[in-house]
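CORE FACILITY INTAKE
Project code: CF-77B
Contact: R.S. (postdoc)
Sample description: multi-component assembly, two entities in total
Requested service: structural model of the whole complex
Turnaround: standard
Below are the sequence entries exactly as provided by the requester. Do not edit them.
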Amino acid sequence: DTGVSQDPRHKITKRGQNVTFRCDPISEHNRLYWYRQTLGQGPEFLTYFQNEAQLEKSRLLSDRFSAERPKGSFSTLEIQRTEQGDSAMYLCASSLAGGGGISHGYTFGSGTRLTVV
Amino acid sequence: GQQVMQIPQYQHVQEGEDFTTYCNSSTTLSNIQWYKQRPGGHPVFLIQLVKSGEVKKQKRLTFQFGEAKKNSSLHITATQTTDVGTYFCAGSAGNNRKLIWGLGTSLAVNP
């Protein structure tokens, strides 16, 4: 296992188009997270899954964002009707759930850089 | 809601000087994790602290978790140019299993 893989690495899209990103986590990890990061900021939580269940979604997200993890393995993040404000690095991470529900350290992928023009 | 604050935002040091970044939470944390992000890279996990008053060391890096589990620090002894990057703390509280991230401290090291 080579770690967390994200595809594509870069995406340029026109405003109003839909985009979909894929994340393949470390196979032994049961938790998967999506974050968004802009320059000079820390990662901003979007959503997370434990196995195939989506347990939490940020209230900051509009209904244009949706994520799936259909078989508890890879995940997809879709953004509909993209806006220029959606331009950011989208990071996926995976981890193992530890004792008391606390996660072990996250392993991040290299991210998908989205540019909306 | 839960907030995690980090200071300073930026730090420039001469190679060989020490460096410390501080992390403070508005609520008691269940755990705190530290990450390093190199310019153009993604966050890389450094360590997790769980116990009150816990201190862990990794070579020149020393991590502390406060007695009240509301603050933490990362101290680097004798910085090197390879230490350049942004250091993030991230913690979770209670039954909330997602990490809340600080804004990070960007470290620049002059050779």
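Facility notes:
- The longest strand of chain A covers residues 88-95.
- DSSP finds no helices and eleven strands in chain A.
Invoice: internal transfer
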